[in-house]
Amino acid sequence: MKHIKSISAVVTLLIFNSFYAQVAIGKETIDGRSTILDFNNTSTNTKGLILPATQGLPVGIPANGTFVFDRLDNKVKMYENNTWKALSDVGNSAAVITNGSDETGNGVVIGTQDGSAEGVLVLESSDKAMILPKISSPHLNVKNPYPGMICYDTVSKTFAVFDGTVWNYWK
């Protein structure tokens, strides 16, 4: 009986150690073991990731790699080394729908039990990354992009950001 419990414990540990904090959206499997968040990236995909549209910049000191669509100046921005960097030209936030509900809680953290960053969705891992939704020529194929939409353009092989007016591309 003692051996059965020991064997059961070892098997259970092996099973749980084979799981990784990985999430697939719109598909069944993750591309690679180094991915924390992966999207359905079929050749006909026209859906990107929408950044939070904030009224000004978040209060406090955000974590490096925080992305927002700032409705005060209509620019997509990223926080890096104590500075907000604009990733787009001046766009247009007229299409942004304001969320009137109160936000409570700390959001969702993927990758660790105790995330140190604050945000609506926090991906935190020392050895995994997010794969952006991949879209072929988003300026041609996304018919109604939303301000703050981001994706990876598979044709130009660039990071694409929609500012509410035009697509901005980064290598």
Any overview of this molecule?
- The chain has 2 helices and 14 strands; from the N terminus they run αβββββββββββαβββ.
- The model is unreliable at 5-20 (pLDDT under 50).
- The protein has helices spanning 2-17, 138-141; strands at residues 23-25, 35-39, 49-50, 53-54, 66-70, 75-80, 83-86, 108-110, 121-123, 129-130, 134-135, 149-153, 158-162, 167-170.
- Strand 11, helix 2 and strand 12 form a beta-alpha-beta unit.
- With 171 residues, it is mostly beta strands.
- It is 12% helix and 30% strand.
- The longest helix has 16 residues, at 2-17.
- It has one domain (21-170).
- The strands form 4 sheets. Strands 3, 11, 12, 13 and 14 form a 5-stranded mixed sheet that branches. The protein has a 4-stranded mixed sheet with strand order 4-5-6-7, with no helix packed on it.
Give the topology, please.
Elements: H1 2-17, E1 23-25, E2 35-39, E3 49-50, E4 53-54, E5 66-70, E6 75-80, E7 83-86, E8 108-110, E9 121-123, E10 129-130, E11 134-135, H2 138-141, E12 149-153, E13 158-162, E14 167-170
Features:
171 residues, mainly beta, five-stranded mixed β-sheet, four-stranded mixed β-sheet, 30% strand, globular, signal
N-to-C SSE series?
HEEEEEEEEEEEHEEE
Radius of gyration: 19 Å
Tally of individual domains: 1
Described by strand count, sense and barrel closure, the largest sheet is:
5 strands, mixed
Q: Using the alpha-carbon principal axes, give the shape.
A: globular
Q: Based on DSSP secondary structure assignment, what is the total number of beta strands?
A: 14
Q: How would you classify the helix and strand content by structural class?
A: mainly beta
Please state roughly what percent of the residues sit in beta strands, choosing from under 5%, 5-15%, 15-25%, 25-35%, 35-45% or over 45%.
25-35%
Low-confidence stretches: 5-20
Look at the structure and give the mean pLDDT: 79
> How many H/I helices?
2
Keywords: Signal
